[in-house]
């Protein structure tokens, strides 16, 4: 059915999109899993769907608080390509930097970019940080209320909910990518099987959406590319974007990995390359590998000559296939 202009504007208004956003955003089968999602989150999700199978958004993970500076990757891309990525990847990994992570995410969103945040969740009964995220934690015990492990886990969940609530209150929608690479065995949340993982995902989703009302989140599920196993899929009711990752240097067009995710989620979700080493060749993307975005990891994964040459980056970031920050629509910009 074709809507006339009045009907299209009415439909857009339901989603909070009447101020300049196109009517395709009102597609009823492309709604967020959280029915209370903020207008900004719904606008962003509608835009992502509009690009899926047409364009691929560029993404870059920041180095974070360590030397030389958290903007090093952005500065490098700007200098080498004349462009900035559409999506900036950030990480709740260092409690001393987490408030600054929120500030950087806010600045990025208010200057027209898209923010995605992951969480290298240190084992709750050990401590924070990347190395502690690789230490074991008794997830099965933690899923039982009243246990010491449950108390520690819920403490951490509450703290990260507090961090995300700052971005909610600032009007910043977030591509939230928790518990990433869950089918690998290197992080504790991937060591206790699919049922425990799905219970943890459901618990976090319930806490964040129902208890803490974090309605600014778009939930991104990220398989480890070596093992895209359907047994770990929590289901469409709690997932908004699905993805997989790869760090192999000569990865080709990644069509087989895309097909593995597609076989699980079908057309119900857009599919992203949630982490990668070398930037994928835009000439190899298309019907067989329609990644919604890619997210190059930081430091050597961006600047290493064995990963991306400056010539390659200039070619890729100026390609027709890829969307950079300057090409994002102005109405996505977070309001102050």
Automatic annotation (TrEMBL):
Keywords: Glycosidase, Hydrolase, Signal
GO molecular function (one): hydrolase activity
Source domain of life: Bacteria
Signal peptide: 1-25
The keyword Transmembrane appears for this protein: no
Domain spans labelled GH26: 39-326
Cross-referenced SUPFAM superfamilies: (Trans)glycosidases
Active site: 181, 275
Keyword Cell inner membrane: no
Family to which the UniProt record says this protein belongs: Belongs to the glycosyl hydrolase 26 family.
PANTHER family, A to Z: GH26 DOMAIN-CONTAINING PROTEIN-RELATED, MANNAN ENDO-1,4-BETA-MANNOSIDASE E-RELATED
Protein name in the entry: Glycosyl hydrolase
Protein's organism: Sphingomonas rustica
Lineage: Bacteria, Pseudomonadati, Pseudomonadota, Alphaproteobacteria, Sphingomonadales
């Amino acid at each position: 059915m074709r809507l006339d202009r009045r009907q299209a504007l009415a439909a857009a208004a339901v989603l909070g999109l009447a101020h300049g956003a196109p009517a395709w955003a009102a597609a009823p089968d492309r709604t967020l899993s959280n029915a209370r999602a903020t207008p900004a989150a719904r606008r962003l999700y509608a835009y992502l769907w509009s690009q899926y199978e047409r364009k691929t958004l560029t993404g870059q993970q920041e180095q974070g608080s360590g030397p030389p500076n958290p903007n090093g990757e952005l500065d490098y891309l700007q200098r080498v390509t004349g462009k900035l990525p559409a999506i900036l990847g950030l990480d709740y990994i260092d409690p001393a930097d987490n408030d600054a992570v929120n500030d950087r995410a806010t600045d990025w969103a208010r200057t027209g970019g898209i923010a995605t945040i992951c969480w290298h969740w240190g084992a709750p009964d050990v401590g924070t940080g990347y190395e502690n995220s690789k230490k074991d934690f008794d997830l099965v015990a933690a899923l039982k209320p009243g246990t010491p492990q449950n108390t520690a886990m819920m403490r951490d969940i509450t703290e990260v909910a507090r961090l995300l609530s700052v971005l909610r209150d600032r009007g910043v929608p977030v591509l939230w990518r928790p518990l990433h690479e869950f089918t690998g065995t290197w992080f504790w949340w991937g060591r206790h099987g699919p049922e425990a993982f799905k219970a943890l995902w459901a618990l976090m989703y319930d806490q964040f959406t129902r208890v803490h009302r974090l309605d600014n989140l778009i939930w991104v599920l990220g398989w480890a590319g070596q093992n895209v196993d359907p047994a770990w899929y929590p289901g469409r009711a709690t997932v908004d974007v699905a993805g997989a990752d790869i760090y192999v240097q000569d990865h080709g067009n990644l069509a087989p990995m895309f097909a593995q995710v597609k076989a699980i989620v079908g057309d119900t979700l857009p599919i992203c390359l949630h982490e990668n080493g070398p930037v994928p060749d835009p000439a190899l993307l298309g019907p067989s590998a329609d990644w919604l975005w890619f997210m190059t990891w930081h430091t050597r994964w961006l600047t290493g000559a064995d990963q991306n040459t400056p010539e390659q980056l200039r070619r890729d970031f100026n390609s027709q296939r890829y969307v950079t920050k300057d090409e994002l629509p102005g109405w996505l910009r977070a309001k102050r």
